[in-house]
Write a structure and sequence with these properties.
The chain is of the alpha+beta class. The chain has 2 helices and 4 strands. It has a 4-stranded antiparallel sheet with strand order 1-2-3-4, with no helix packed on it. Strand 1 and strand 2 form a beta hairpin. The radius of gyration is 17 Å and the shape is flat. The protein starts with a helix and ends with a helix. The relative contact order is 0.15.
């Protein structure tokens, strides 16, 4: 087995699970290999909104989670207001 194949196997074992214990609200294309995924889930009894980049794993062909953020549902109105300000050109 080549070094490249061993590295790919190790990366596969270390890769986070593709399972998402929640409801997917939206998938927005980022580019040909990635999507922004917005989801809702609970963690230790707290409702969260999860916004994360998911990428196409070339080795397995599955979507895998990448960088992102989980936000408490109670904070969402403030974040939406801030983002709306950006869209309207008011926030700088």
């Amino acid at each position: 087995m080549s070094t490249k194949e061993k590295a790919a196997q190790a990366a596969n074992r270390a890769a986070p699970s593709t399972a998402f214990a929640g409801e997917i609200i939206a998938e927005i294309p980022k580019n040909s290999r990635e999507v922004y995924r917005v989801g809702r889930r609970d963690f230790k009894g707290f409702p969260l909104v999860d916004i994360r980049v998911w990428f196409d794993d070339a080795t397995t062909g599955e979507l895998r989670p990448g960088k992102g953020v989980s936000i408490k549902l109670e904070s969402l109105p403030e974040i939406v207001a801030a983002l709306s300000g950006l869209i309207e050109g008011g926030a700088r």
